[in-house]
Specification:
By secondary structure, the protein is α/β, with parallel strands linked by helices. It contains eleven helices and six strands. The mean pLDDT is 90.
Length: 296
């Protein structure tokens, strides 16, 4: 099929709103599809752009930026010769190479967290267990300000809270990820920022729980010991089948990104067990309402 005129599928315009990582993954998926349709091996594609099969793999997984020359050469190899198609595709490539919105906050962010922000915006689904605090995607500004005050200089507080609010916009983007959060009941009783701030935060959780793309469950005290005791974590899943899930474990000064199959399977099992041990979403909402009322 090499040399035949081939059309490129349109990349959903809303993907770009989710950040450059999401766009890189979408573009990489298009390049892989084109290569496979033409029957070109990764090795042959790598040779064509003076690279290796490993480079082609990284490009197709969206794990690296794109060079315009490489993309042009690959499109030609795959039979994409119509000028308008090539130009539109290269426009997307340029957007994918632009810094993410979080670049404006790079002075506040360690590199390991910048990586997470990109993956979070690119994910199809986010499943998270939190045993200490409300997850960042669900925090109110006052609660976030109190959390920020626990570990950072107040001079950065305004921008750090702004950064957290900006993150939350992915839940409003059409085609954005779904969020499934399991919260230890202790989260509803730890008065971060004081009772008034916590009450408003819980009321926000209740409101968010009605959204179609958000599921919140509460793991009650009566559940006793559980498989994730002492460890909060997040599982990111992507629409592209070629991309493995990623487990994100945040520590005080670093983070771990796990994508080995055995690790992923373990954390999936743990998350599934937590969901079973937790109250159903409807009952969890009742628990949250009662917790808020109990704060006066």
């Amino acid at each position: 099929m090499v040399g035949e005129r081939i059309r490129i599928d349109v990349v959903d315009s809303h993907v770009a709103e989710r950040g450059p990582t999401a766009l890189r993954i979408a573009i990489g998926g298009q390049l892989r599809k084109l290569r496979e349709e033409c029957g070109v091996t990764r090795e042959a594609a790598g040779d064509h752009i003076r690279g290796s099969h490993a480079k082609i793999s990284r490009l197709e997984l969206g794990r690296t930026g794109f060079k315009e020359r490489d993309v042009r050469d690959l499109l030609a190899l795959y039979g994409v010769t119509e000028p308008t198609q090539c130009d539109r595709f290269l426009e997307l490539v340029h957007k994918a190479n632009e810094p993410g919105w979080w670049h404006l906050y790079s002075d506040l962010l360690p590199s390991w967290f910048e990586t997470y922000l990109g993956l979070e915006g690119a994910a199809m689904s986010i499943r998270t267990f939190e045993g200490q605090l409300v997850p960042g995607l669900l925090q109110t500004e006052d609660y976030a300000r109190a959390v920020v005050g626990l570990g950072h200089e107040t001079g950065d507080a305004v921008r750090r809270v702004e950064l957290r609010r900006k993150r939350q916009e992915i839940l409003d983007v059409r085609g954005g990820p779904t969020l499934w959060a399991v919260l230890d009941e202790a989260v509803l009783h730890r008065p971060i920022g004081g009772n008034e701030v916590l009450r408003a935060q819980i009321e926000h959780l209740v409101a968010m729980s009605y959204r179609r793309n958000v599921t919140i469950q509460v793991l009650p005290y009566v559940a006793g010991a559980h498989a994730a005791a002492g460890s909060s974590f997040t599982i990111l899943r992507f629409a592209e089948q070629e991309l493995p899930d990623v487990v994100y474990l945040e520590q005080l000064t670093s983070a771990l990104y796990l994508d080995r199959r055995e690790d992923i399977e373990l954390y999936r099992e743990v998350m599934d067990r937590l969901a079973v041990q937790s109250e159903r979403p409807e009952r969890s909402r009742e628990v949250m309402i009662a917790a808020a009322e109990g704060l006066g």
